[in-house]
Design a protein that fits this description.
CATH superfamily: P-loop containing nucleotide triphosphate hydrolases
CATH topology: Rossmann fold
CATH class: Alpha Beta
Number of domains: 1
Radius of gyration: 18 Å
Number of strands: 5
Number of helices: 8
Shape: globular
Structural class: alpha/beta
Helix content: 40-55%
Length: 236
C-alpha cells in the first residue's frame, strides 16, 4: 500500500475548515514594500506579463474588501479608533478578501497578485504597540504565498516619490499618530525606520526575496520577472 502523503501546510498555523487545500492549484504572489517603493507599478507590469503568458490574474491588496473598506477609510479620516481596533479592522478586511476572492481564485487555477499582504499589516500593528506574537496569531489563518518579493527602497526616495505623487506626506504613512515628532518630515523618517526593522525581521522569518527598489521600474521588473518565472518553471 502506498502511504498517504500529507499536503504541505498552507496557512501560518490556523486550520481553515472547509477549504479544499488540495484543489488550490493557483499561485499566490505577493509584492511587498513601503508606500512609494514601486509596488503598484511592479504589480501592473507583472500582471501584464502573466496575462500575456496565458495566466488568469486576480488582483488583491489592502482595503479592497466590500465588507469594511469604506469603514476603514472613514476611521482613518476621523482619527477616532485605537491602534488595536484599527488592526482588527484591517484583519477583517483581509479575511473577507481571503474567503471571497483569494481562495476561490486559487481554486480556479488563477494567479493571485497581491499588492501588499499581511506583512505590512503586521508591521504597522507592531510599530503601534502590538507584540509580534499577537500579530502572528492574528494572521495565522492567512495562506502562505508561493512567492513574496520585497522592494527594498531608501527612505529618501520614498519621500521624493510621495511628494511627486501626492504633493505632501500622508498622516498615517508618516506615523503622526504615534507622536514620534511634531515635524512630519522627522516623523516620516522615524516611522519608516521602525517599519524597516519589522520588515527585516519578517524577511528572515518568512523568506522574502529582496529586490533593490532604488532602480528604474524596468530594472526592478526584470529581477522580479526572473523570480516569478522560476516559480512556474520549477514545478516537479
Amino acid at each position: 500500500m502506498t502511504p498517504r502523503v500529507a499536503p504541505p501546510e498552507r496557512t501560518f498555523g490556523t486550520r481553515l475548515p472547509g477549504v479544499p487545500f488540495r484543489r488550490l492549484q493557483g499561485k499566490l504572489i505577493v509584492v511587498e514594500g513601503a508606500d512609494g517603493s514601486g509596488r503598484t507599478t511592479e504589480c501592473s507590469l507583472l500582471k501584464e506579463d502573466l496575462e500575456i503568458q496565458g495566466h488568469a490574474v486576480v488582483d488583491t491588496g489592502l482595503r479592497r474588501s466590500t465588507l469594511v473598506s469604506e469603514e476603514i477609510d472613514q476611521a482613518k479620516q476621523g482619527h477616532v479608533l485605537g491602534a488595536t481596533t484599527m488592526a482588527l479592522f484591517y484583519a477583517v478586511d483581509f479575511a473577507d478578501q481571503l474567503e471571497n476572492k483569494i481562495i476561490p481564485a486559487l481554486a480556479s487555477g488563477s494567479v493571485v497578485l497581491a499588492d501588499r499582504y499581511i506583512y505590512t499589516l503586521m508591521a504597522r500593528a507592531i510599530v503601534r504597540g502590538a507584540p509580534r506574537a499577537w500579530a502572528r496569531r492574528l494572521y495565522s489563518f492567512a495562506l502562505k504565498p508561493d512567492l513574496t518579493v520585497f522592494l527594498d527602497t531608501r527612505e529618501e526616495l520614498l519621500l521624493h516619490r510621495a511628494f511627486a505623487r501626492y504633493g505632501s506626506l500622508d498622516y498615517w504613512e508618516s506615523g503622526m499618530d504615534l507622536g514620534l515628532s511634531r515635524d512630519r518630515f522627522e516623523s516620516f523618517f522615524a516611522f519608516q525606520a521602525l517599519l524597516r526593522k519589522e520588515f527585516d525581521w519578517m524577511a528572515r522569518e518568512y523568506g522574502f526575496v529582496p529586490v533593490n527598489g532604488n532602480r528604474t521600474p524596468g530594472a526592478v521588473h526584470a529581477e522580479v520577472s526572473a523570480a516569478v518565472r522560476s516559480l512556474f518553471t520549477s514545478r516537479a
